[in-house]
Design brief:
With about 375 residues, this protein is mainly β. About 10% of the residues lie in helices and about 40% in strands.
Length: about 375
């Protein structure tokens, strides 16, 4: 073999092995990145795509915040719900949960195929602040698979925050089935375990908030958190939560601080401003005038939920969270649903509702299929 040919041959071999080495190293780096908790693609959270979302249709809708004042023409919430099914009507069971007392008020509404409705909260639950859960049900009032629901809302708060929110939709994943009636004879349970319904959020994130301190060229900001753990028992309303929100607060210089807030069924109105989070030093020192920060958080505290139709108890040491945020700064005001970093996967979560026949129905016969959180 000529010398020039040998050189070309060895150059080819070296280039080939270099390419293989880089591929192996790249795969190793990707694998390492996927083991970091909370990053997209993490194997622990491979079911992230099974979580509730504002960008999908579902069988359950969560409206994360509403408020109204019957004596004010300004403070109110406009709710919109749409049935995107072109051939089938649906019955909806609406549950309004009071953020102060956790007391539940419910009502039915029915949507024909391709129908949309809108209503003001003052007409359904005046002078109350809370959250709304909308569930598709059959002619008996049992939860069903009907992944054609979408919704949104427009909110004006007593603190002059104005914003719109899309409803967070939970799809039913096991098909067009109805949940069975529980052994008590008057309730039925939805299981958010990634098998029957989507997972609910666990670790939440406020991706950015401005300093709550004014300064030269930096107007005063007011950032709010509207956070709750969904009531597990909408049939009796007696399964409220009492625990703690644990926060990691990050400034824009990559420093991290921790803090806490108490949580019952909803962050109380006096604790909703982001400066209420107890940190050392306080948030106004962590994020001074003209700077920004962000935070992530989850909830600690026990709650016992129903694990199957026979009432198997499941005790949780942490709970799922839902919520929204809003900010006013200068001439700007707006808000959005809080993002979530991880889903509440194991063992999942359940919400139990009363089984009541709606005044109208789609007259479609759904076969029964249950699920369970119990071993």
């Amino acid at each position: 073999m000529r010398t020039s040919h040998r050189r070309l041959f060895f150059k080819f071999i070296c280039t080939f092995y270099l390419a293989i080495t880089l591929l192996v190293i790249g795969a190793g780096v990707e694998t390492l990145a996927q083991t970091i908790p909370g990053l997209p693609g993490n194997a622990v959270d491979a079911a992230f795509g099974l979580g509730v979302s504002e960008n999908k249709l579902g069988s359950v809708l969560f409206f994360n915040y509403y408020t109204s004042d019957a004596l004010s023409t300004q403070v109110n919430t406009r709710i919109n719900i749409t049935n995107a099914n072109p051939t089938q009507d649906v019955s909806l069971h609406l549950f309004f949960v009071d953020s102060v007392t956790c007391i539940v008020a419910d009502v039915f509404t029915c949507l024909t195929r391709n129908q949309t409705i809108g209503f003001d909260i003052t007409d359904f639950d005046p002078n109350v602040t809370g959250y709304l859960i909308v569930i598709a049900v059959d002619s008996e009032g049992k939860p069903i698979g009907f992944n054609f629901l979408a919704g949104d809302e427009l909110v004006v708060t007593p603190t002059a925050h104005r914003f719109g929110l899309a409803a967070m939709a939970a799809a039913r994943r096991d098909g067009d089935f109805a949940s069975p009636i529980n052994s008590d004879g008057f309730s039925s349970t939805l299981f958010f375990n990634g098998q029957q319904y989507d997972f609910l959020p666990y670790v939440m994130m406020l991706d950015s908030f401005p300093s709550q301190v004014s300064g030269i060229g930096a107007p005063l900001a007011d950032t709010r958190l509207y956070v709750y753990s969904p009531l597990s028992d909408l049939a009796t309303g007696d399964n409220s939560f009492s625990g703690t929100l644990f926060f990691f607060v990050h400034d824009d210089m990559e420093r991290t601080f921790s803090g806490q807030l108490p949580l019952t069924c909803f962050i109380t109105s006096d604790k909703q401003r982001v400066t209420s989070i107890r940190t050392s030093p306080n948030i106004n020192t962590i994020v001074p005038a003209g700077r920004t920060g962000w935070l992530k958080f989850y909830a600690n505290g026990q709650r016992t939920i129903i694990g199957d139709k026979n009432g198997c108890p499941v005790t949780l040491n942490n709970v799922p969270l839902m919520g929204a945020t809003a900010t006013r700064i200068g001439g700007f005001t707006g808000g959005h649903n809080l993002r979530y970093i991880t889903t509440f996967n194991a063992p999942g979560y359940s919400i139990t509702i009363p089984v009541i026949a709606p005044p109208c129905s789609s007259n479609v016969d759904y076969p029964t299929k249950g699920s369970s959180l119990c071993l």
